[in-house]
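Let's practice the habit of predicting before peeking. Look at the sequence and jot down your guess about where helices and strands might fall. Then scroll down.
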Amino acid sequence: MPTATADSKEAPPSYSANSVGPAGSQSSPNEPPPAYHVPHAYKIGTYILSPPNAVVNLEELKAHLALLRAFKTLRTNVQNKTAAELNLPVVVENMDEKKRWSWFVGLAVERFQLWVETVKYHSDLSEWIEKELPPIDVLMAWHAYTLNPMWYHEDGLRVPAMKTLRSLGDRLLTSIVHIGDINLYSPTEDRIQEWRKRTGTAFDPLESAPQLTHRTVECPYCWTQLSAPMIASGDTGYLQTKFSITCKCNKKITKDILAIAKFIKDLVSSDHPSSLSVDFDRINDGYIAGTLTTITDPQNDTAARKVKTSLLVNRFLSDPIQPKRDIRDTRADILKRVDGDLANLQKHISISLMLPRRRTRVFSAYVDDRPFSVELVSAVLRQGSFIDKMHGFAWTEPTYFDDDVDEVVLIHAIARYHAFLDLMTSASTTLFVPTLDIDLAWHTHQMKGKQYSDQCMKYLKRLIDHDDKIEENHLANAFDITCRAWQQRFNVPYMHCGCPLPGDTIGQKLAKLTHRLSISRPSDPTGNSLLPPAHPDAFSATHPSEHNCVEVDGLSTEARRQARLHKLKQRRERDAKRVEQGKMDRAAYERGAAHDAAFLYPVPFFYPPVIACGAVGVGGFASCGLGASCAVGAGACGGGGACGSGGGCGGGGGCGGGGGCGGGGGCGGGGS
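Done guessing? Here is the structure:
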């Protein structure tokens, strides 16, 4: 085979394995897996990447896991120690664990904003770490932000406060790799003092918590700077669900009003955001959130300007927006027109945004007065279950991957992630769902910021977003599609954790995708880098990643969940019979019994129908994303790409072991 290069477009190496071929030709289900072959190259579409040019590497995954350990330690300290032990405000003492953590994450996001507004660029990495690296709670917010890559990319282009952060590129990941183990990092005394000078808070996040009692909020009516308490009686603090504060101008300020003011500011802003009057000569130099970056164009200025023009000629908005008029008067006029109700504003401008998906995306960015288009409190909280999974595997332990025998699990994850990207090149409108090992590598890749965006455009010709708010039934069905598509393309099972495949049968939709995949499927199946090494973690890590699974209240949702639970029971009974008949590996079956079923126990974030609220159900604490419905990935599972087939995903049964992902059922087969 020719020498692989980063940008080679010669015939790619196949990912398929010798021991798993077409249905009926696989090895005995009770035979041990073959020796793991470390891949000599990775394929993404027509590109072949040598290991040094891989999109992620072993050192980066290890550093990322160390960072997750630091996040886990921080959460444990906040939740398990008393307020007195941590010198936290007395009011925290009566909070339950979830409520206390939600409050603390709110403080972390506040500190992240303070850092973003003051951070400086240094070309030398060591110098930047010494002078600019933020505390661990701020790193946690930054980490969650990067895991929303389309928003992170667009905000870097659109939001003035984000310009320096964009210039830092992949500095988040390279910094923690350079440090080695972030848990052992100690800032210099000069760094501690400089942090305090810039932000007014202590460097240590726990020490700073008692200091962050209020946040400055600008009254959208008279521009008075108000000091809003973070927490208050009646849940009316800034970090609580019923935030409300009355200005001296007698106007009541809520999150809705702050969100409307933020939208109006973006609508009338130019590339001179400090201007106090509407400048129609420059008004198109600023952009509405969710309109500048698209899947196929990371900076579509033309499309963004069209949306803004459409809004500016909207009769409801055009009267108050007049040339040279004071922006404060414009904002006050529009606030009065909508009676301070964000839903009213959305109703009046929806027609100007045209596409429903665009409306959903735009509205989700306007939930408060922060400059970020991502509601970062909820984004951090949603990562909790994934961190717990990594901790449960013990992957976050400092010496866990020191041995080559264990290290191969991460090498396998890297190979599978590159294959996952390759799978995406085959069906541009399909939502594919990662497993835990793939998601770890994917998160690591996203931490590279602009480099992630650039590599997506180069190798996949589109920017792949990482949607972390997908309704559970939709996610389960999409995972069915992923299993079948993976088996069809690579001729190896997708899951090896022992789970019966979750989700409903897709039927005719799968036939369209499997036909397309069969046309583009790699030939000459000689490699086996996608088969798991003989290590128990390699099997467990192929369980579906569910941290982006959200629950939407409603009878239909519960009915679909119960239907999937019934189908899961049937599949387990089917697999038990296959084990007795010698058609399925007993170890694989038992692995499936050792953990919860996928997509039946979603992360406990509850969203009312239509309007998604990125909130933990912990009493008064929330951070509510008004208007942000549970949108799915680009194209979702429909369009020209969806997936379905009675074809089956492989061998003798189950979703794991030597049996493959299906055969007469399971990951494909005749139905369930």
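How did you do? The mean pLDDT is 76.
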